[in-house]
TrEMBL record:
Protein name: Hotdog fold thioesterase
Alphabetical keyword list: Hydrolase
Keyword Hydrolase assigned: yes
NCBIfam families, alphabetized: unchar_dom_1
Domain Thioesterase per the UniProt entry, residue ranges: 57-130
Record's keyword annotation contains Cell membrane: no
UniProt cross-references to CDD domains, sorted A to Z: PaaI_thioesterase
Pfam family, one: 4HBT
């Protein structure tokens, strides 16, 4: 017998386990990305722009901005404990940020169904909207929390 699971209930039931797993992202750790908040279909993280994250013009490299956006997207789409992977990400770079600036990325779920989910991510500096992201994920069958699969 297959058990139908409620994503939001699963998020709250396994919140600590979900957060612990998603915080183990070694690339995000290496970049100094700190997960600030995780909710059902949402995530917020912060990162300080370092010398190693600058491009040839002395401003934050687009890859650094993309990395924090991709991280919160991954956390938000996996926040229900169901394994989700990115299918498509579109990013628009809107403003430059400098060494030493703290940036924040906020992912918000726009729509979710059985197989896919869509997210908006805002990357903000202390003074400006730096990047805007639209992202699509594929929701696999397996859950990484809670034992029995759907």
């Amino acid at each position: 017998m297959r058990i139908k699971r409620d994503d939001t209930e699963l998020h709250y039931q396994y919140a600590e386990e979900i957060q612990a797993k998603l915080k183990r992202d070694t690339f995000a750790q290496w970049l100094g990305i700190e997960l600030i908040e995780i909710g059902p279909g949402t995530a917020t993280a912060e990162m300080t722009i370092t010398e190693n994250m600058l491009n040839a013009h002395g401003t934050a490299h687009g890859a650094a901005l993309f990395a924090i956006a991709d991280f919160v997207f991954a956390v938000a789409c996996n926040s229900y404990g169901k394994t989700s992977v990115g299918l498509s990400v579109n990013i628009g770079y809107l403003a430059a940020c400098q060494k030493g600036e703290k940036i924040k990325a906020i992912a918000t779920e726009i729509k979710r169904n059985h197989r896919t989910s869509w997210y908006e991510v805002r990357v903000e500096s202390e003074k400006d909207l730096v990047a805007h992201v639209s992202a699509l994920s594929y929701r696999k069958n397996d859950y990484f929390v809670g034992g029995e699969e759907e």
